[in-house]
Design brief:
The radius of gyration is 32 Å and the shape is globular. By secondary structure, it is an alpha+beta fold. Helix 4 packs antiparallel against helix 5, helix 5 crosses helix 6 and helix 5 crosses helix 7. Helices cover about 35% and strands about 15% of the residues.
Length: about 375
């Protein structure tokens, strides 16, 4: 691969191991009947519909209109894995819904693309009270505490489970970056997590573009060094990838994420926190470490950092600590009176009690005076 042609394939197409040898360009009518949509009006897609005659495969249909540039881009994506070593190609196919074919119609070269459905292992049973639901589990769950995860009936990941998922995530990111592709959409909603498999599955990868692309804005994922309105590039991807990994490793999702990384004691990954902090806080965006460096650090490897080391912005300020609200304990009622009546009754009883003590005290004072007078006579 070269910088001028970052995703061009070489030679004959590599064998797609995903089980369906379809042509790389197909007409919509060639796919057979489409089932009811499983997703609609999500991002660039107007609908995602299962292929009835091909279980496990989906037609992702784009919004209406001619998409000449998208046609070329999707062809590049489909052929990109041909240039990878076999192991990386297998990882890419196993860990992403990589497009297998471009769907076209007369006058529209990019009606959509054919993609695989996420494997069943990424579905989990979520329990909430008496109800449960089996669904694809977003990586969002790793940005929560183990107690929260356990509370919905999921296996507790612990640090090792979080680490395994982040290793796979950064491995996929390193492959994309090696292909010269920008993803831009690193966030909670675009990756699934398997607690049992300790792995992740990246979706919406058909939106990748070579070198740069319009910045996909996600609340709380803005890169502070990518000016609003400018394109996303590999350096934007590095920041967002690091932010996602930091949140998943620490189980936090606000400014405390950065502090959690800075204070980490990951003994078997001593370089991981330094790589993450340079990706997140480097004042020069072009000195952010690559995805492959983060993956290496998460796999117990060293951080071969350029000298001098990147300067960093300070850690973000922590949100103000919320005061702990101590609620009064409920007092059991022995009557069926409404609360207002109970309060009035309690005040009257208190007043009667105070009046009784006053009379007792007055009696004691009078008695003492009488005793003193008697003793003087």
């Amino acid at each position: 691969m070269t910088d001028s042609d970052p995703v061009a394939g070489v030679g004959a197409p590599a064998v797609d191991p995903r089980g369906w040898a379809l042509p790389r360009t197909v007409g919509l009518g060639d796919l057979g009947p489409l089932a009811e949509p499983i997703s609609e009006h999500n991002g660039q897609a107007v609908a995602v519909r299962p292929l009835t005659d091909h279980p496990g495969w989906l037609a992702k249909l784009y919004r209406p209109g001619p998409h000449q540039e998208d046609g070329h881009r999707i062809d590049l994506l489909i052929s990109a894995p041909d240039a990878l070593p076999e192991a990386e190609r297998a990882t890419l196919y196993a860990g992403t819904c990589w497009p297998a074919a471009r769907i076209h119609e007369p006058g529209n070269p990019a009606v959509g693309c054919v993609i695989p459905m996420a494997p069943e292992q990424y579905r989990s049973e979520l329990r909430r009270g008496k109800f449960s639901e089996r669904r694809f589990l977003e990586i969002d769950w790793l940005a929560k505490s183990d107690e929260s995860i356990r509370g919905v009936g999921l296996p507790c990941p612990g640090f090792e489970g979080r680490l395994a998922a982040c290793r796979r995530l950064t491995e996929l990111a390193a492959i994309l970056e090696g292909l010269g592709l920008v993803y831009s959409d690193w966030s909670f909603s675009n990756a699934f997590w398997s607690p049992e498999g300790r792995s992740v599955y990246l979706i919406d990868v058909d939106g990748c573009q070579p070198k740069k692309m319009p910045d996909i804005h996600q609340p709380n994922w803005a890169d502070p060094l990518t000016p609003p309105g400018s394109d996303a590039d590999q350096y934007t991807d590095r920041y967002r990838l690091a932010l996602l990994v930091a949140k998943c490793l620490t189980g936090r999702r606000d400014a405390s994420t950065f502090h959690g990384v800075a204070a980490s004691h990951w003994l078997n990954q001593p370089a991981a926190s330094e790589v993450l902090l340079d990706m997140l806080l480097a004042t020069d965006r072009e000195r952010r470490p690559a995805a492959a460096q983060l993956n290496q650090a998460l796999n117990n490897g060293p951080y071969l950092r350029a000298v001098p080391r990147p300067t960093r912005t300070p850690l973000p300020q922590l949100p103000p600590t919320q005061p702990t609200l101590v609620l009064p304990q409920p007092v059991p009622h022995t009557t069926q009176e409404p609360p207002a009546a109970t309060c009035i009754s309690t005040v009257e009883e208190k007043q009667k009690s105070e009046t009784g003590w006053i009379w007792v005290l007055a009696f004691v004072v009078i008695l003492v005076i009488v005793i003193v007078i008697a003793s003087n006579h």
